[in-house]
Protein 1
Amino acid sequence: MKIYFTTIAVIAAIALFGAGLVTANNTTNSLAQSIEQVSVNTEIVEGLTVRRTEGNIIIPKDVEDLIAKSDIIAIGKATQSLPESTPLIQRDFEGYVTEAISQTEFKVQRVLKGTSYSDTLLIGQQAAIVADRITGKSFLQVFDDYQPLVKNAKYILFLKKGLNGSRLYFPIGVYYGKFNVDGTDQAENKIENSDFKLIRKDVIERFKKIIDQTSAS
């Protein structure tokens, strides 16, 4: 199925992989080792202990910048939970995790910018279930404050296509391009970043009419 943009004109933009996920392929050994350290908090997601990593994120200046950086803007629902998603894990020669991504299916209800040749997009999430290199015990590795997509929850996503022929699309700025619009993803409220909150408010206001039009889907 071919879906074309309807509301927003295509805005050409050149952006880095994942629009801010630039540290993923340039992880140093020291950072890789810090990834494997046990988290000091007790955060639990999908029944797993969460270990959060840090890195640089390219933050969109405002909604206009977010739109400009996006290859595709789509409204739809995740059809897989994180445990049902495909983990894409990279490790260094010592077994330390250098990249942890999940491939998650997203059912498109409406495309607002760009072109999708299918009603399903493959979303690259900066979160994945990983086995500890020593104990083998599973934990959830998450980049920064990213909150995983909730199965059957409805989102508007601002996406950048991965490089080198990748089939994955990544939310701009890790989590700045991912907004729940039906109130079923309460974890998003855990993100305390004031820039994110402001952009989220502006996105919901700007796209409210279109979001409401798809509410029955």
Protein 2
Amino acid sequence: MSPVVRSAPTRESPGQGSLVPNQGRSGHSRKLVNTATGEVHELYDAEENRRSYSFGGRHGQFSFERVLAMLAADSGITGDEFRLFFYCGIMTYNGKGGANARESAEYLGLTPQATRRMSKKLAEHKMLLVADRIGRTIKYRVTPHIVSSLSGREQSEEAAAYHLPTLPGRPAQRRGA
């Protein structure tokens, strides 16, 4: 249990101070309520209660609508394909520009043949895009329509260059329909 201190009376309210937990980082107590007058002195210390939003790492955004469609039972996408998609997404925006089948297979615990097959299927539906081709090795990246870490304007410009992705288990939908 935290120590409890009695807040000191002030010139404005000379009554007895209230009992408040000693929560300050510097060891001083906060004057919340003067019990003699009912006067509220301080409810919130913005500096002390500020939350840190520095989570570390790089952040991106994704389309809730399209990711939920990918998760749906009738989407035609398996769990391993979904994992592959997001692995390629992270590698796309983590400075590597995408991932090939061998890298993906090693990380996801799958065979390179399976990751090649899944990558090809996702690329046919424009969910993965060919980022680089060296000989027979293909590096895939995700479509900016679903995952991006670019600014809004940059994402719009990049997305305009590519067709909308479709889902393997659903027929292609028309734009605006």
